[in-house]
Amino acid sequence: MFMLQFGTGVQGGCPTYRNVLNIMKEFNLETSPVHLTVSFGKGKTAWTNYAPSELTERLQKDIERFEKLLKFINKFEAIFIFLPIAKVLKWYGFSEDFCNYMVFPLTALFFGTGNQVPYVSSAIMARVFLDDDLRLFDYDSKRLLSQTPEMFAFPKLEDMYKTILDNCGLQFHGNRSVSKVIRGHGKVTVSDQSGKVEQFDEIIFACDAETALKVLDNPTFMERNALGNVRYFNDLIITHEDEDYMNKYYELHKAVDQYFIHTDQNDPEKLEMSFNLANYQPHLKGKNRNIYQTIYLNDHLRSIWTEKELDPDKILLRRWWRQFAHSWHHYAFVVPLVKYIQGKQNTWYCGAYTLINTHEIAVISGLAAAHRLGAPYPFPKDRLAVKQFDQYLLVIHGHSRVPGLNKTSLLSYVMAPFMLVFAGLSLIVNFFYKAFFA
Length: 438
Ligand SMILES: Cc1cc2nc3c(=O)[nH]c(=O)nc-3n(C[C@H](O)[C@H](O)[C@H](O)COP(=O)(O)OP(=O)(O)OC[C@H]3O[C@@H](n4cnc5c(N)ncnc54)[C@H](O)[C@@H]3O)c2cc1C
Fold this sequence. Notes:
The protein has 438 residues and is α+β, with helices and mostly antiparallel strands. The protein has two domains: 12-153 and 232-324, Polyamine Oxidase, Chain A, domain 2; 173-231 and 329-436, 3-Layer(bba) Sandwich (FAD/NAD(P)-binding domain), CATH 3.50.50. It is built from 16 helices and 15 strands. Helix 3 (60-75) crosses helix 7 (122-130) and helix 9 packs antiparallel against helix 10 (221-228). The radius of gyration is 22 Å and the shape is globular. The N and C termini lie far apart (53 Å). Flavin-adenine dinucleotide binds at residues 9-13, 113, 177-178, 206-208, 211, 215, 237, 321, 323, 351-352, 357-359, 362.
């Protein structure tokens, strides 16, 4: 007998997570290297990133054309950021099989919350392949993916954050969820769920946008829009050892694959994701058990979920998550407004929802809020870490890290009027979108 430990939620990252990795280094936390392996589809629609397949041969022409399209999208990112990937693929005449069995599963792998893959912004998808600093895979014009890039797995996250909290000299109150925040007279008054009230000079919200909006007394017009437009979805994650289920819905190569995607046969835009945790979580190494995790996306689609087919005796854990999705709405109606809620009435916002749903962005967003309150940025010597931080600070705070006359501060002044126009347009378009389409 042994205690089985496994992580749910955040599992790992790529070497470009420089801010996360630097923080881990500061606290002597180790990562475990893994090579990413994926298995999408089943039977005739099966493909992987480590072997040729019938599907990739059949869709060869689409794969070749898609690379050219991604380059085009990347060139005109400012426009394509508002255009969902499914629409763009349709306009450019890609086959349904290519969209349903190759592009959507891949999109789900990168951004997979809420079964919103058709609506993911096409510009964000292009970045995953073409951004020199951030890309995960080199595009293969024959097989789309043909590399198993090196990633890293986190240690157990609970232990990791406990180590950080124990060693960074701050006071942490884990059991005091915030229930009300009142701003006024240059102070912030915060009540917790037990009714205890305390006063602060500033507040940084590091929770989800829904909670921030719920607890804020008298939110501003911009806060109601920026926070209120984040769309959340409920996903169910079941950790299990049901190999029959895995074999029924996936092409299961037990010793190799980490990520799996199953496409619904009746509605191929809808997907289910699974993982074999034993193939990458360090705490499961040497245990000789395959521990699977299946994610059922968006509870509004519960009628198509196949969770009931799981053998109840083989279920280890059921857990609900509420996550936002990278739909084009997010980049049209949320991100352009976040700059205008930062620092107003002694209130700051961080969290992955302010830009992209990754652990790295969540961490950068926290460092940015701290920086605006006077904390020096801790990793100025790491080229990629500082580049990502500066870009975030510019877009989400409209600020330069280094004061005085320099390239980024000039850029922030030049961008300011454009950002304002953009935010105004975002509000107007959203008004009409809600009136006629929502
Ligand atoms: C299943 C799954 C797998 C994922 N895997 C990965 C991965 O492998 N790699 C990766 O980079 N990203 C991954 N992500 C995305 C990643 O989890 C998020 O980007 C990241 O956790 C966002 O961090 P955050 O700080 O913005 O929000 P959260 O991590 O959601 O933190 C918000 C915090 O606010 C707290 N809170 C809420 N309400 C209150 C309140 N009233 N008072 C006080 N505190 C409150 C919550 O308890 C929580 O701790 C995954 C997401 C999911 C759902």
